[in-house]
């Protein structure tokens, strides 16, 4: 990669991406590129139809109109972060997600399979699989996350081992963590809001203070850290190094943003690559 190239996503079909960068995961880890975007990885018409199905079957709803009527992210799937303190409940919930996903996509292509197969094609030398514990119990494979008005993520990084220190989970064995995110529905886009932002900032101790003080965005501006916003259409799938600082500026407008997302555990010298959510 030439040093003079702007820090911008490598995108296109999987073949087009691999022509430009032979080891995309390494290029992301080294901050040579922010992410790869597989355009039209999944049919956008299937995203729309599945979104309707999620509402019809009650998996998706406006959190301000249901239950406690408080704003929160609506998830379809299992989140390790939410269940980490209760591994038994986590594996039981994960099993429920596998059962749900077995029938949820009937009549359409399976977006979780698309996500896994796409990663497998990017790293053909590895075995891409659902994360599992030593007894074979599976983690949730992927999760639909729906962000309504006011929801998002402030700048952060994700690492089960380095940040969350969840050494009791098998995924902590991997040296690196990535994320795969497929757009299912965009919010009304207003400038800066509603779509993911990546900073050219693999986590380092200097960032702790601005992150905890919730002023990383200002810090990045002051110190000249590059940032890119990732513009996606339904069916586009992007991969990034989740140990680099990233955010999802809070959603505006009536229409929620919905994505399908998995984390990825990867080590250079480990033939297996685990995915979970
Ligand atoms: O939804 C996104 O674009 C990124 C969400 C996020 O922070 C993650 O997957 O780690
Ligand atoms: Fe994240």
Model description:
The protein has 277 residues and is an alpha+beta fold. It has a single domain, classed as Sandwich (Jelly Rolls), CATH 2.60.120. The protein is 26% helix and 24% strand. It is built from 8 helices and 13 strands. Strands 1, 2, 3, 4, 5, 7, 10, 12 and 13 form a 9-stranded mixed β-sheet that branches. Strand 12 and strand 13 form a beta hairpin. The radius of gyration is 18 Å and the shape is globular. The two termini are 31 Å apart. The mean pLDDT is 95. Fe (ii) ion binds next to strand 6.
The gist of it:
The chain has 277 residues and is an alpha+beta fold.
Core attributes:
26% helix, 277 residues, binds fe (ii) ion, globular, alpha+beta, 4-stranded antiparallel beta sheet, Jelly Rolls
Low-confidence stretches: none
Q: Total number of helical segments? A: 8
* Count of β-strands: 13
Number of domains: 1
- CATH topology assignment: Jelly Rolls
CATH top level assignment = Mainly Beta
* Alpha carbon gap, first and last residue: 31 Å
Question: In percent, how helical is the residue content?
Answer: 25-40%
- CATH-assigned homologous superfamily: Jelly Rolls
Q: Which ions and ligands are bound to the chains?
A: 2-oxoglutaric acid, fe (ii) ion
Mean pLDDT: 95
Oligomer: single chain
CATH architecture: Sandwich
| Radius of gyration, in angstroms, nearest whole number | 18 Å
Helix-strand string: EHHEHEHHHEEEEEHHEEEEE
The secondary structure category is alpha+beta
Largest sheet, if any? 9 strands, mixed
């Amino acid at each position: 990669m030439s040093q003079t190239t702007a820090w911008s996503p490598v995108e296109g079909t999987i073949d087009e991406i691999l022509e430009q960068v032979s080891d995309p995961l390494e290029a992301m880890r080294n901050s040579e590129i922010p992410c790869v975007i597989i355009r039209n990885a999944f049919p956008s018409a299937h995203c729309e139809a599945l979104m309707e199905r999620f509402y019809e079957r009650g998996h998706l709803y406006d959190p301000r109109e249901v239950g406690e009527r408080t704003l929160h992210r609506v998830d379809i799937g299992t989140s390790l972060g939410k269940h980490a303190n209760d591994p038994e409940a986590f594996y039981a919930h994960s099993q429920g997600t596998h059962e749900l996903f077995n029938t949820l996509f009937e009549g359409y292509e399976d977006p979780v399979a698309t996500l896994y197969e796409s990663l497998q094609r990017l790293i053909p030398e590895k075995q891409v699989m659902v994360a599992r514990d030593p007894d074979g119990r599976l983690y949730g494979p992927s999760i639909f996350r729906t962000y309504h008005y006011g929801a998002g993520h402030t700048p952060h990084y994700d690492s089960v081992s380095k940040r969350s220190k969840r050494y009791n989970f098998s995924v902590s064995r991997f040296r690196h963590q990535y994320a795969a995110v497929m757009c299912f529905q965009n919010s009304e886009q207003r400038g800066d809001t509603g779509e993911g932002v990546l900073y050219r900032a693999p986590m380092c101790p200097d960032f702790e203070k601005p992150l905890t003080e919730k002023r990383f965005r200002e810090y990045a501006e002051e110190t000249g850290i590059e940032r890119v916003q990732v513009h996606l259409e339904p069916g586009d799938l992007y991969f990034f190094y989740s140990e680099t600082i990233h955010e999802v500026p809070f959603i505006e407008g009536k229409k929620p943003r919905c994505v399908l997302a998995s984390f990825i555990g990867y080590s250079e010298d480990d033939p297996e690559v685990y995915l979970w959510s």
